[in-house]
Amino acid sequence: xxxxxxxxxxxxxxxxxxxxxxxxxxxxxxxxxVEGGAVTVVSTLAAVFxxxxxxxxxxxxxxxxxxxxxxxxxxxxxLQDQNQMAEFFTLRxxxxxxxxxxxxxxxxxxxxKRSNHPxxxxxxxNAEIILAAQTMTDHLAPLGLLEKADGWxxxxxxxxxxxxxxxxxxxxxxxxxxxxxxxxxxxxxxxPGFPGCSAGFQAIAADMEKFTRQxxxxxxxxxxxxxxxxxxxxxxxxxxxPLALLCQQEDxxxxxxxxxQ
Length: 261
Ligand SMILES: [Zn+2]
Prior knowledge:
Blueprint: H1 5-13, E1 22-26, H2 38-48, E2 52-55, E3 62-63, H3 80-85, H4 101-107, E4 112-114, E5 122-125, H5 128-132, H6 141-148, E6 152-156, H7 165-172, E7 178-184, E8 187-194, H8 205-208, E9 213-217, E10 220-226, H9 227-240, H10 253-259
Parallel strand pairs: 1-2, 1-6
Antiparallel strand pairs: 2-5, 3-7, 4-5, 6-10, 7-8, 9-10
Helix pairs in contact: 1-2, 2-4, 7-9
């Protein structure tokens, strides 16, 4: 069954988020067939919500140096081939393919603006103040403003392993952050405050279930997660267990850096 604009409109309105701002994480494939593809999803988001932001991260700008600070969840001197291929960040740099096709379409929307962090930029519609909060030392600050405005994270056919807002809550809980480096037209710049790994984040789903609103659109389960409650729950969980929400992969450098500190 093909998903049409009407299905998207009715489904998203069913979440009853009124005028609350949202951050959207999405998988186009999860819907099955969508008439008009990613453009349809982006146009519908812009029509339903007053303020929308999406992560438009660009990992291809990253540089791995030969040396650097200790316990930084990184193998210095590795990925030298990728260094050779690294691209300068500009506002037109395409979104990393790992994030899906919807963010790439979203940043090209005529009403969308983009922030200029070289690795972790966001694009937003009607979100100038939220995007302007981002700095090189506090690049997740837009999520703090979203929370203060009673915003929601919208997971469209994806789970908490891509829920960037959990990284903001990790930082609030005092969890270690990392340093990464990116190539920009001004040279290689240091990007502090880089978050840990998100592969273990789905473990928060059970705690958040009673606060989460859900609708089904085509093949995609759409979940709306209130940021205020999400931050509260994640912070409480990490305060109780400093290793909460880490992944189980033995060779995960960032999760191990947190375990070994
Ligand atoms: Zn991990």
